[in-house]
TrEMBL record:
Natural source organism: Adineta ricciae
This protein's name: Transposase
Any one GO MF annotation of this record: nucleic acid binding
InterPro entries assigned to the protein according to its UniProt record, in alphabetical order: RNaseH_sf, Transposase-MT_Hybrid, Transposase_1
Amino acid sequence: MVIRLLLSKQWKDGREEIEDEARSGRPITETTFENFERIRLLIDDDPYLTIEELEYETGLSHGTIHRIIAEHLNLKKITARYVPKDLTDFQRAERVRICKENLAKFQQGAWRLCDVITGDESWFFHKQIGRKSSNAAWVKKGDPPSTVTRQSKYAPKTLFSIFFKSNGPMLIHHLKRGETIDHQYYINNCLRPIVDEIKHQRPSYGTRGMKIHHDNGKPHIHEQTSTYLRSEGLTVIPHPANSPDLSPCDFWLFDFIKDNLTDYNDSQSLHDAIVNFMYSVNKEEYKKTFEK
């Protein structure tokens, strides 16, 4: 009723337009083309700017900037991904070349995924305090989250060397206290057992057609390591430098195992737990990882 009386008075006073009259202060919408360009240019110049910094630079509201970024520029902020090393142009080119050549051999049928054995080494802590999933806890609104001390580098841990195929594990080996992996240890304790297992699984074919994939760690690329693999008829799949995203151990297996461990008192009990877990994983999971 109040609005009707107000409009009636305005018409009597001679108003003829039905649109709202301009009002002082910030306009209802500031998502104009000019503001799109202002935000876009600022972000192009510095993609790490926060919305608060964009507010300061442009004088636009938080909500307006958020709408422009999300709905009009179609941008979202993503935390930078850690990489072990910033590759040179040559290393990037080599990465592309090696990947294309490897992929072509699989696509053309010269290589088969079922003939590939891949593996690497990783440290496994005996206590699993670093797992995010196990550290999540419900707290009342407004209360601070609980804290967990970062795993000490001196905490008990064991180095494991793990190899697997597209149908399951091939080798799960842990170093005893005080030992280190050099090329001779790698040959005697990792490669020889793998070769023996291949011959056991394939008595008629042995290592014929089998491929091994490991990264460029020093024990892996040592001359004597390469000589041994050639003598046993194993082909080494080339691996680009500093490319953990191309190693199934790095982009899948190791984190998968660690996320499913509990606490263990010694290396042997940890070893037994890893063996049990790896053999409990559905073979399809191993196969899907190779297909990736």
